[in-house]
Amino acid sequence: MGHIGTVVIVHLLLHFLVPLLPALTLYRKKWLVSYGMLLAGLLIDVDHLLADPIYDPGRCSIGFHPLHTAIPIVAYSLLMLFPKTRLIGMGLIIHVVLDAIDCQMTSGIWYTAG
Ligand SMILES: [Zn+2]
Fold it and tell me: Does residue 112 sit within a domain?
């Protein structure tokens, strides 16, 4: 497996492992349900299906895919303000942060919004 393959595996692992942290610390009593809601943040990657190619290791998701642009990201942080949508918002923000870190690791191109 090449370097890019390793980066992709690490990235996927982080997408599943990082949400465990708030679930096990902040929501210990309901960690499994909370973890499930945090993982819902992964669903915004459906916007990759609109892109060609669907996945490009040298391309940064942030600012490129429609659900990874500024206005949706602001909306995700607003979701965190309300108790009922807080976990969904938190999962989405974790996703965006991990994608942003991924941009650095793959030395991908940062696209500006629009
Ligand atoms: Zn993503």
Answer: no
